[in-house]
Amino acid sequence: MRDQNLTCPMCEEGQLIPHIGTEKTTYKGKTLTVQYESSTCSTCGSKIVTPTQAHRNQARILDEQRKINGLLTSREVKKIRETFNLTPTDAAILFCRVWQCRSPNFS
Fold it and tell me: Which domains does the chain have, with CATH numbers?
């Protein structure tokens, strides 16, 4: 679902105008400042986070948590996959074998 030209679910008249700001959250005692997407209705002024925006917001938060945990971010994993011409499934199988898993967990 694309976020462009969405009608406001509150008033069902206005268009949702996307905005990008920052939000702070705490993880393991550290304050994280992450880019945060939301939308505002052009008619009623309601502030909405669309499902697509929520997904991107969550991905940014998880990447910041991965950094604190000393893990690779999603972009870093993607870059490694592209460097070695691996599909997401190929990479999961390879990484799973490295850690001596019996089968990859895709859930």
Answer: 1-69 (3.10.20.860), 71-106 (no CATH)
